[in-house]
Amino acid sequence: MLQVSKHIRLSSHGRGRPSLTKNNDLQLLIDNEIFCLGPDRKTSRLSQLQEFTLINLLAHFFTERDEMNKYTYFEVLFLGREGDSFIHEQRLRLLYRLASYALQFPVLQLYAQISLWLSKVGSSKPYAEELVAVLAEHYLKPADSKIYEYLLPLETSCPEFTVFFVVYATRFMPINRPMAIVFASHINRNPGYFLKGFRDSPHLADIFRQEVFEKMLTYLLEIEGEPASDTEAMNYHTAIMVLLDKWSSTIKKPLDINLLFDPSVRWSRFRSDALCVIGSKSPAASKMVAKKLETCKVPPAYASLISDAQARTLSSAC
User: Fold this and answer.
1) How far apart are CA 85 and CA 102, in angstroms?
2) Could you list the pLDDT tens digit for every one of the 318 residues in the chain?
3) Backbone angles phi, psi at 32, to 5 degrees
4) Cα–Cα distance for residue pair 219/277, rounded to 1 Å
5) CA–CA distance from 266 to each of 53, 93, 101, 241, 297 (Å)?
6) What pTM, to 2 d.p., does this model score?
7) Pseudo-torsion of CA 16, 19, 25, 30, nearest 10°?
8) Which residues, other chains included, contact 8 with Cβ-Cβ below 8 Å and sequence gap of 6+?
9) Cβ-based neighbours of 188, under 8 Å, separated by 6 or more
10) Would you give the distance in Å from CA 67 to the centre of its chain?
11) What are residue 37's phi and psi, to 5 degrees?
12) What span, in angstroms and rounded, lies between the C-alpha atoms of 165 and 163?
């Protein structure tokens, strides 16, 4: 680690600033002395305990680095073998474990470097999906645990990463209670900043609007019981309403809302509220909702709520 720091300090002076990811001597040093590759270059000499010790050491290392060169350290350590697929994958595997560990250590500033890297990669590689799968396995699968709470500080320390998490988590597992709580918290904390992430990364917006939002709606519409008595359900409901209300003002392509007009879907206050929000956007949207509901048998109580919302929208346009 001292040698890595020395190389980075030296490279930070002067105009040239050569790429240390392409410095073969330095990368060999990292292979042999940090990741401890074996003679065949395909296996590690580290035991499980030694690998955990390395992860702990890396967590301390990134806590102590100065902000100016932090991404350089990240790049040199984890991205310096992109030309060698096997060694590169080995480094990424350890990075994913470090990222999971960093949530509890905590060294949340590591996620700023991760988010910058994933933004540069874009849709060309599956790295974001792979990392989110690891985090979902560790923090969302235990449905009866509160370990998911370690994911919540990301919304303030690195809100950029929360967009990646919400987009890819449902590819790994269906929405459960912990995932719903995390999604709601990430979205509600700062909706404008959250949606800005989609505006800046259209490929993430496309995945969300075509795949994820329908899954989120399905989970909402399957919630049973009295909404007002369930804080978690109301927070999730609020997140959906926020997305329906603010999405079109930030992203041009629309969300998939067809599920709300499916005659086979159970009616609930959540469903009627969603339709009211959609219809309130404009007179044209209000008429669209009314037209699509013609094939649905709407219970009188909900029909009244939707009609009142439509009337308010039309009167405000006059």
Assistant:
1) 25
2) 777 777 767 666 554 455 677 788 889 999 999 999 888 887 889 999 999 999 999 999 999 877 778 898 999 999 999 888 899 999 999 999 999 999 999 999 999 999 999 999 999 999 999 999 999 999 999 888 999 999 999 999 999 999 999 999 999 999 999 999 999 999 999 999 999 999 999 999 999 999 999 999 999 999 987 666 789 999 999 999 999 999 999 999 999 999 999 999 999 999 999 999 999 999 999 999 999 999 899 999 999 999 998 888 878 765
3) -85, -40
4) 18
5) 52, 43, 41, 18, 10
6) 0.92
7) 140
8) 20, 69, 72, 73, 76
9) 235, 238, 239, 242
10) 23
11) -70, 145
12) 5
For residue 40 the two structure tokens come to 């065949």
Q: Are 44 and 87 in contact (CB under 8 A)?
A: no
The size of the chain, in residues, is 318
| Amino acid in the structure at residue 1 | M
* Residue 252: both structure tokens together: 């041009």
| Residue type at position 161 | F
For tokens 């073998």, the residue is 81
- Structure tokens that stand for 72 in this block: 């350089």
**Residue 40: φ, ψ to 5°:** -80, -5
Structure tokens at 134: 């690891």
